[in-house]
Amino acid sequence: xxxxxxxxxxxxxxxxxxxxxxxxxxxxxxxxxxxxxxxxxxxxxxxxxxxxxxxxxxxxxxxxxxxxxxxxxxxxxxxxxxxxxxxxxxxxxxxxxxxxxxxxxxxxxxxxxxxxxxxxxxxxxxxxxxxxxxxxxxxxxxxxxxxxxxxxxxxxxxxxxxxxxxxxxxxxxxxxxxxxxxxxxxxxxxxxxxxxxxxxxxxxxxxxxxxxxxxxxxxxxxxxxxxxxxxxxxxxxxxxxxxxxxxxxxxxxxxxxxxxxxxxxxxxxxxxxxxxxxxxxxxxxxxxxxxxxxxxxxxxxxxxx
Length: 305
Hints:
This protein is 30% helix and 15% strand. By secondary structure, the chain is of the alpha/beta class. The protein folds into two domains: 2-78 and 266-286, Rossmann fold, CATH 3.40.50.720; 81-258, NAD(P)-binding Rossmann-like Domain (Rossmann fold). Helix 9 links the parallel strand 8 (179-182) and strand 9. The model has no long low-confidence stretch (mean pLDDT 97).
Protein backbone atom coordinates (compact mmCIF):
# COMPACT_ATOMS: atom_id res chain seq x y z
CA UNK A 1 0.00 0.00 0.00
CA UNK A 2 2.97 2.34 0.50
CA UNK A 3 3.62 2.32 -3.25
CA UNK A 4 0.00 3.24 -3.92
CA UNK A 5 0.23 6.14 -1.47
CA UNK A 6 2.82 7.79 -3.70
CA UNK A 7 0.32 8.10 -6.56
CA UNK A 8 -3.06 8.35 -4.84
CA UNK A 9 -4.75 9.78 -1.78
CA UNK A 10 -5.49 6.70 0.34
CA UNK A 11 -8.15 6.76 3.04
CA UNK A 12 -8.24 3.96 5.61
CA UNK A 13 -11.55 3.28 7.33
CA UNK A 14 -13.71 0.75 9.10
CA UNK A 15 -17.39 -0.03 8.49
CA UNK A 16 -18.57 2.94 10.52
CA UNK A 17 -16.56 5.43 8.49
CA UNK A 18 -17.08 3.86 5.08
CA UNK A 19 -19.74 6.29 3.86
CA UNK A 20 -17.59 9.32 4.67
CA UNK A 21 -14.51 7.72 3.08
CA UNK A 22 -16.43 6.86 -0.11
CA UNK A 23 -17.39 10.46 -0.89
CA UNK A 24 -15.19 11.58 -3.75
CA UNK A 25 -13.38 8.22 -3.94
CA UNK A 26 -12.65 6.64 -7.35
CA UNK A 27 -11.73 3.15 -6.11
CA UNK A 28 -12.42 0.96 -3.09
CA UNK A 29 -10.29 -1.90 -1.77
CA UNK A 30 -12.69 -3.97 0.34
CA UNK A 31 -10.17 -5.74 2.55
CA UNK A 32 -12.83 -7.05 4.95
CA UNK A 33 -14.25 -9.45 2.40
CA UNK A 34 -17.10 -10.64 4.63
CA UNK A 35 -18.40 -7.15 5.30
CA UNK A 36 -21.80 -6.11 3.96
CA UNK A 37 -21.26 -2.43 4.83
CA UNK A 38 -20.84 -1.31 1.23
CA UNK A 39 -24.54 -1.62 0.50
CA UNK A 40 -25.40 0.66 3.40
CA UNK A 41 -22.75 3.17 2.38
CA UNK A 42 -23.55 2.99 -1.34
CA UNK A 43 -25.50 6.32 -1.54
CA UNK A 44 -22.23 8.08 -0.64
CA UNK A 45 -20.37 6.56 -3.62
CA UNK A 46 -20.68 9.66 -5.78
CA UNK A 47 -17.76 8.99 -8.16
CA UNK A 48 -16.80 5.37 -7.52
CA UNK A 49 -15.53 3.55 -10.62
CA UNK A 50 -13.89 0.39 -9.29
CA UNK A 51 -14.29 -1.99 -6.33
CA UNK A 52 -11.75 -4.71 -5.54
CA UNK A 53 -12.62 -7.35 -2.94
CA UNK A 54 -9.96 -9.35 -1.07
CA UNK A 55 -11.53 -12.75 -1.75
CA UNK A 56 -12.60 -15.00 -4.58
CA UNK A 57 -16.25 -14.94 -3.48
CA UNK A 58 -18.11 -11.70 -4.18
CA UNK A 59 -21.54 -12.48 -2.71
CA UNK A 60 -21.24 -9.86 0.09
CA UNK A 61 -21.28 -7.09 -2.54
CA UNK A 62 -23.76 -8.56 -5.01
CA UNK A 63 -26.54 -6.13 -4.12
CA UNK A 64 -28.72 -4.69 -6.91
CA UNK A 65 -27.29 -1.18 -6.87
CA UNK A 66 -23.76 -2.41 -7.55
CA UNK A 67 -24.89 -5.01 -10.07
CA UNK A 68 -26.77 -2.40 -12.09
CA UNK A 69 -24.09 0.29 -11.90
CA UNK A 70 -21.13 0.93 -14.20
CA UNK A 71 -18.71 0.29 -11.33
CA UNK A 72 -16.17 -2.41 -12.23
CA UNK A 73 -15.81 -5.22 -9.71
CA UNK A 74 -12.64 -7.33 -9.41
CA UNK A 75 -11.75 -10.10 -6.99
CA UNK A 76 -8.66 -11.89 -5.66
CA UNK A 77 -9.06 -15.08 -7.65
CA UNK A 78 -6.01 -17.33 -7.61
CA UNK A 79 -4.64 -16.56 -4.15
CA UNK A 80 -6.20 -19.50 -2.31
CA UNK A 81 -6.50 -22.18 -5.00
CA UNK A 82 -3.63 -24.48 -4.04
CA UNK A 83 -4.03 -23.95 -0.30
CA UNK A 84 -7.69 -24.95 -0.43
CA UNK A 85 -6.81 -27.97 -2.56
CA UNK A 86 -4.30 -29.03 0.10
CA UNK A 87 -6.93 -28.65 2.81
CA UNK A 88 -9.36 -30.84 0.87
CA UNK A 89 -6.72 -33.52 0.31
CA UNK A 90 -5.97 -33.34 4.04
CA UNK A 91 -9.56 -33.95 5.16
CA UNK A 92 -9.97 -36.76 2.62
CA UNK A 93 -6.90 -38.49 4.05
CA UNK A 94 -8.19 -37.82 7.58
CA UNK A 95 -11.45 -39.58 6.73
CA UNK A 96 -9.81 -42.45 4.84
CA UNK A 97 -7.22 -43.12 7.54
CA UNK A 98 -9.66 -42.58 10.44
CA UNK A 99 -7.46 -39.90 12.00
CA UNK A 100 -10.20 -38.29 14.13
CA UNK A 101 -10.83 -41.68 15.77
CA UNK A 102 -7.10 -42.16 16.34
CA UNK A 103 -6.90 -38.81 18.15
CA UNK A 104 -9.92 -39.70 20.28
CA UNK A 105 -8.42 -43.06 21.22
CA UNK A 106 -5.07 -41.41 21.99
CA UNK A 107 -6.73 -39.05 24.45
CA UNK A 108 -8.30 -42.08 26.13
CA UNK A 109 -4.99 -44.03 26.15
CA UNK A 110 -6.58 -46.85 24.17
CA UNK A 111 -4.74 -49.10 21.73
CA UNK A 112 -7.34 -50.19 19.15
CA UNK A 113 -6.08 -51.60 15.88
CA UNK A 114 -8.25 -50.90 12.79
CA UNK A 115 -8.02 -51.25 9.05
CA UNK A 116 -8.40 -48.09 6.99
CA UNK A 117 -9.24 -47.16 3.42
CA UNK A 118 -7.13 -46.42 0.38
CA UNK A 119 -7.45 -42.96 -1.17
CA UNK A 120 -6.24 -44.08 -4.60
CA UNK A 121 -9.09 -45.30 -6.74
CA UNK A 122 -11.82 -43.40 -4.87
CA UNK A 123 -14.16 -41.22 -6.92
CA UNK A 124 -14.58 -37.52 -6.19
CA UNK A 125 -17.08 -35.04 -7.59
CA UNK A 126 -15.93 -31.41 -7.42
CA UNK A 127 -18.94 -29.09 -7.59
CA UNK A 128 -17.56 -25.85 -8.99
CA UNK A 129 -15.27 -25.80 -12.02
CA UNK A 130 -13.48 -22.48 -11.52
CA UNK A 131 -9.79 -22.14 -10.62
CA UNK A 132 -10.23 -23.51 -7.08
CA UNK A 133 -12.14 -26.54 -8.34
CA UNK A 134 -9.47 -27.17 -10.96
CA UNK A 135 -6.68 -26.97 -8.39
CA UNK A 136 -8.61 -29.50 -6.28
CA UNK A 137 -9.05 -31.81 -9.26
CA UNK A 138 -5.33 -31.74 -10.07
CA UNK A 139 -4.39 -32.38 -6.44
CA UNK A 140 -6.73 -35.34 -6.07
CA UNK A 141 -5.74 -36.86 -9.39
CA UNK A 142 -2.11 -36.71 -8.23
CA UNK A 143 -2.89 -39.18 -5.42
CA UNK A 144 -4.76 -41.55 -7.73
CA UNK A 145 -8.35 -40.45 -7.24
CA UNK A 146 -10.83 -40.44 -10.13
CA UNK A 147 -12.23 -36.91 -10.37
CA UNK A 148 -15.19 -35.41 -12.21
CA UNK A 149 -16.68 -31.93 -12.06
CA UNK A 150 -20.08 -30.31 -11.90
CA UNK A 151 -20.60 -26.87 -13.38
CA UNK A 152 -23.01 -24.69 -15.31
CA UNK A 153 -22.57 -26.71 -18.50
CA UNK A 154 -21.86 -30.39 -19.11
CA UNK A 155 -18.68 -31.19 -21.02
CA UNK A 156 -16.47 -34.10 -22.00
CA UNK A 157 -12.70 -34.12 -22.36
CA UNK A 158 -12.06 -31.37 -19.84
CA UNK A 159 -8.29 -31.14 -19.14
CA UNK A 160 -8.73 -31.20 -15.35
CA UNK A 161 -12.01 -33.03 -14.76
CA UNK A 162 -12.38 -35.25 -17.77
CA UNK A 163 -16.16 -35.27 -17.48
CA UNK A 164 -18.17 -32.28 -16.25
CA UNK A 165 -21.82 -32.76 -15.27
CA UNK A 166 -24.40 -30.00 -15.39
CA UNK A 167 -25.12 -28.72 -11.88
CA UNK A 168 -28.81 -28.65 -12.72
CA UNK A 169 -28.65 -32.46 -12.90
CA UNK A 170 -26.53 -32.86 -9.77
CA UNK A 171 -28.76 -35.29 -7.90
CA UNK A 172 -28.70 -37.75 -10.78
CA UNK A 173 -24.90 -38.02 -10.60
CA UNK A 174 -24.26 -37.96 -6.84
CA UNK A 175 -24.71 -41.73 -6.28
CA UNK A 176 -21.52 -42.49 -8.21
CA UNK A 177 -19.06 -40.71 -5.89
CA UNK A 178 -17.24 -41.44 -2.63
CA UNK A 179 -16.48 -37.76 -1.98
CA UNK A 180 -18.58 -34.74 -2.91
CA UNK A 181 -16.69 -31.46 -2.65
CA UNK A 182 -18.45 -28.09 -2.79
CA UNK A 183 -16.33 -25.20 -4.06
CA UNK A 184 -18.98 -23.40 -6.13
CA UNK A 185 -19.53 -19.64 -5.83
CA UNK A 186 -22.71 -18.49 -4.11
CA UNK A 187 -25.28 -17.37 -6.68
CA UNK A 188 -29.05 -17.52 -6.95
CA UNK A 189 -28.61 -20.79 -8.82
CA UNK A 190 -26.30 -22.43 -6.27
CA UNK A 191 -27.90 -21.25 -3.01
CA UNK A 192 -29.27 -24.26 -1.14
CA UNK A 193 -28.19 -26.70 -3.88
CA UNK A 194 -27.21 -29.25 -1.22
CA UNK A 195 -30.59 -30.01 0.28
CA UNK A 196 -32.41 -33.11 1.51
CA UNK A 197 -32.78 -34.48 -2.00
CA UNK A 198 -29.08 -34.07 -2.74
CA UNK A 199 -27.96 -35.75 0.47
CA UNK A 200 -30.44 -38.60 0.03
CA UNK A 201 -28.98 -39.18 -3.45
CA UNK A 202 -25.43 -39.67 -2.18
CA UNK A 203 -23.95 -43.14 -2.09
CA UNK A 204 -23.85 -45.01 1.24
CA UNK A 205 -20.52 -44.15 2.85
CA UNK A 206 -19.98 -40.97 0.83
CA UNK A 207 -18.34 -37.98 2.54
CA UNK A 208 -19.21 -34.32 1.94
CA UNK A 209 -16.75 -31.42 2.02
CA UNK A 210 -17.80 -27.76 1.87
CA UNK A 211 -15.23 -24.99 1.37
CA UNK A 212 -17.41 -22.85 -0.91
CA UNK A 213 -20.04 -20.91 1.02
CA UNK A 214 -22.23 -22.00 3.90
CA UNK A 215 -25.35 -20.96 2.02
CA UNK A 216 -24.73 -23.64 -0.61
CA UNK A 217 -26.07 -26.03 2.03
CA UNK A 218 -29.42 -26.30 3.78
CA UNK A 219 -27.93 -26.88 7.22
CA UNK A 220 -30.97 -28.59 8.74
CA UNK A 221 -31.04 -31.03 5.81
CA UNK A 222 -27.32 -31.73 6.22
CA UNK A 223 -27.71 -32.52 9.91
CA UNK A 224 -30.66 -34.81 9.19
CA UNK A 225 -28.65 -36.50 6.45
CA UNK A 226 -25.65 -37.01 8.73
CA UNK A 227 -27.88 -38.67 11.32
CA UNK A 228 -29.28 -40.94 8.62
CA UNK A 229 -25.85 -41.79 7.20
CA UNK A 230 -26.06 -39.81 3.95
CA UNK A 231 -23.54 -38.32 3.91
CA UNK A 232 -21.62 -40.65 6.16
CA UNK A 233 -19.41 -37.76 7.30
CA UNK A 234 -18.73 -34.12 6.49
CA UNK A 235 -15.80 -31.68 6.66
CA UNK A 236 -17.16 -28.15 6.93
CA UNK A 237 -15.10 -24.97 6.66
CA UNK A 238 -17.97 -22.55 5.91
CA UNK A 239 -21.39 -22.11 7.47
CA UNK A 240 -24.65 -20.25 6.96
CA UNK A 241 -23.94 -18.34 10.19
CA UNK A 242 -20.33 -17.46 11.05
CA UNK A 243 -18.94 -17.87 13.62
CA UNK A 244 -20.79 -21.16 14.00
CA UNK A 245 -23.05 -20.71 17.08
CA UNK A 246 -21.76 -22.53 20.14
CA UNK A 247 -25.06 -24.38 20.50
CA UNK A 248 -25.05 -25.78 16.96
CA UNK A 249 -25.45 -29.58 16.96
CA UNK A 250 -22.70 -29.76 14.33
CA UNK A 251 -20.06 -29.19 17.02
CA UNK A 252 -20.78 -32.49 18.74
CA UNK A 253 -21.68 -34.73 15.81
CA UNK A 254 -19.09 -37.54 15.75
CA UNK A 255 -18.97 -37.67 11.95
CA UNK A 256 -18.22 -33.96 11.39
CA UNK A 257 -14.90 -32.12 11.06
CA UNK A 258 -15.19 -28.36 11.64
CA UNK A 259 -12.71 -25.62 10.76
CA UNK A 260 -13.39 -21.87 11.13
CA UNK A 261 -13.38 -20.65 7.50
CA UNK A 262 -9.63 -21.14 7.22
CA UNK A 263 -9.17 -23.71 4.45
CA UNK A 264 -7.28 -21.26 2.23
CA UNK A 265 -5.53 -19.17 4.86
CA UNK A 266 -1.83 -19.93 4.62
CA UNK A 267 0.91 -17.98 6.41
CA UNK A 268 1.33 -14.71 4.51
CA UNK A 269 -2.08 -14.71 2.79
CA UNK A 270 -2.93 -11.20 3.94
CA UNK A 271 0.19 -9.78 2.30
CA UNK A 272 -0.60 -11.69 -0.88
CA UNK A 273 -4.09 -10.18 -1.01
CA UNK A 274 -2.62 -6.69 -0.80
CA UNK A 275 -0.14 -7.55 -3.57
CA UNK A 276 -3.01 -8.63 -5.84
CA UNK A 277 -4.78 -5.32 -5.26
CA UNK A 278 -1.55 -3.35 -5.74
CA UNK A 279 -0.98 -4.95 -9.15
CA UNK A 280 -4.53 -4.20 -10.21
CA UNK A 281 -4.16 -0.62 -8.95
CA UNK A 282 -1.03 -0.25 -11.08
CA UNK A 283 -2.99 -1.46 -14.09
CA UNK A 284 -5.95 0.79 -13.29
CA UNK A 285 -3.72 3.85 -12.83
CA UNK A 286 -1.90 3.08 -16.10
CA UNK A 287 -5.07 2.42 -18.10
CA UNK A 288 -4.27 -1.28 -18.59
CA UNK A 289 -6.92 -4.02 -18.47
CA UNK A 290 -7.71 -5.14 -14.93
CA UNK A 291 -7.25 -8.71 -13.76
CA UNK A 292 -10.12 -10.81 -12.39
CA UNK A 293 -13.02 -8.70 -13.62
CA UNK A 294 -16.24 -10.15 -12.24
CA UNK A 295 -19.27 -10.64 -14.47
CA UNK A 296 -21.78 -9.01 -12.15
CA UNK A 297 -24.69 -10.91 -13.64
CA UNK A 298 -23.00 -14.29 -13.17
CA UNK A 299 -21.45 -13.41 -9.82
CA UNK A 300 -17.93 -14.60 -10.62
CA UNK A 301 -15.02 -14.18 -13.03
CA UNK A 302 -15.81 -16.05 -16.26
CA UNK A 303 -13.41 -18.76 -17.38
CA UNK A 304 -10.62 -17.56 -19.66
CA UNK A 305 -9.79 -14.36 -17.81
